[in-house]
Structures are given as C-alpha cells and as structure tokens.
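Kindly review this protein for my students:
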Amino acid sequence: MAQQAYMTETDSGDSDPERRGTRIRRLLVRAVGGWRGDRRIWRRGLVTAAVALLLAGVMAAHSRIPNTIGNLGSLTETFLPWFGLLVPVLLAIALVRKSATALIALVLPVSVWLHLFGGLLFDKTGTGGDLTVATHNVNADNADPAGTARAVAAAGADVLALEELKASAVPTYEKALEEKYPHHAVVGTVGLWSTYPISAVRPVDIEMGWKRAMRATVTTPSGQIAVYVAHLPSVRVKLEAGFTARQRDKSAEALGAAISHEKLPRKILLGDLNGTMNDRSLTAITSQLRSPQGAVGDGFGFSWPASFPMARIDQILVTGVEPMTSWTLPATGSDHLPIAARVKVDTTAS
C-alpha cells in the first residue's frame, strides 16, 4: 500500500498536464504582475518607442528617401523587407524595460510592414497555365556550366534565359541544352533557349558599350510573345560612395524605353536586373510589367546571394499573359538562384 501511494504521488507531479498548466499561468501572472501599479511603465522606454516610430516612418515613406546622397533611397528599398527584423529586437527591449509606451509604439511598424509585405507570407501559387519560363544568372566563373545547364533544364521550362554567359562556356551550355531546346539564340553575354521557334532576334541597346540584352519573338501554340533577356549593370555598396547604381539606373531607363516601343502585346522580361521590385530606379521597367512572384508566388523568392539569399534581383516580369505560379529553383554552381514561373498565354491578345 505504501508503494502504491508513493507511485500515485509521483504520477500526479509535473507530468500532470493540469499541474504544468498551473505553473505556466503562475509564471505569467508573476511576470505581468510586476507591471501592476508601476506608473513608470509609461515613462520608461521612450527612446525605444521613438526608434519604433522612426522605423515605421522609414518603411512607410521609403519612396521619399532621396537618392541624391549615395542612392540611399534605392539601397533602403533593396533590403526593405529585412527592416522587419528590427521589430522583435525592439519588442525584447520593451519587455525587458517594462515599457508600455514602447509596446504600443511597436504596433505602428508592425502594421506598416504587414501592409507592405504581409501578402508575401502566404502561398498564393495556383495551378494551370500553358507556358513555363525560367531565368538564371549562371555566373561567368561557374566551374560546372554543364551541370548548371542540366539542373536548370530539369525544371521543365519551355523558355529558358541565361545571363552572364562567358564566350568560352557558350558551347558547353549549347551542348548540354540542345536535346531539350531545339531553338536558341545568344547575343553577347545573354542567351535564350526555347522548345518553340524563335525569330526576330536582335540586341537591345542598354547603353553599356557591349551586348547584355536581347529581344526575340517566341511563337507558342497560343500565339507570339516578345521575350526580352537582360543583365543590367551591377551595383556596389561603398563606404565612400554609398549605393553606386548610376550605370544600372541608366541601363534600366534604356531597357524600359525599348520595352515601351514593343509592338507585340504579350511581353516577358527575363533576367538579372540587379534590383528589386521596390527599387524606384527600375520604375521605367516595373511600371509596364508585373512580377508573377508578387502576384502568385510563395514567399519573397529571394535569389541572391545563393549561399544566403537576401534580395530578389533576378526577375521574371510579364504583361499580356496571366501569371499562375512562381518559384525559386535549387542552387547550382552560380552565386544566384534560378527562378521560374508558369503563365497562361492570353489568346485574346493580338
């Protein structure tokens, strides 16, 4: 009987869910109870509250941050989603400081961030579509171009664009892709491979002095599509110069002008734009085309750097076709991740 009583007492200890729940409630009451009757909770954490309001202001008014000094506005917009990471830091400080003022102030940056990016937290991918496109900056220094080509081709894209093609590596890509893609064209350092016929291939002048953009007509069963492939100039972040993007911005204007003069109503732009959809400097392009990732993608779709993606600077942009789904492909031998999208060709466009 004594042994049985001992076992009963042990079994009803911390292993009892009700007992554990009671302990958790006591801890929460004790933590919150420390705030009761403390009139300083409204006076403490004013600096934290001010930082929270400043964070909200930067995110809400990012388009008004000037680019006159070091392209600060574009730099902010490139990494804008990551500003949300400051919220849990400020929340922790507010809790440690027991500041009700800071906690209330944090509602504002949380609301702004959710307004800007909340929609990207949900999987909006759909089904259907009749054309899959993909693009990949393969990296000129890629040590395994054949493996990279095979990996991207395995995604099943009907139309594939490659950027940063090294002249000596082009034959390797052509050989690796020839079985799946009977049609292809290479202009300078960019190329287009397609299961459907390609015609009207020409370079697009993006004012760089060498060929890093092209235009072609892809004839699908549902009609012709103008496909642009582009690799805009790289940008750099320098302490003495800030976000150096002048040449990129100039090329973006030239590419946007070329697309605006396109006669075909169905247009798809594939490439490394070295900028995000938030970057105002790409407005000449983004004002004409929309991103399937933003419309029907899953998450942010960051593509660079491949080792720890922080920004989506590789883009698929469309008009005249209906985005159905968008996704990021597994890493290859490049420092970029390949991206893909499936669209439905609008047969009413002519």
About this structure: DSSP finds twelve helices and 13 strands in the chain. The CA atoms of residues 56 and 109 lie 4 Å apart. Residues 1-13 have pLDDT under 50 and may be disordered.
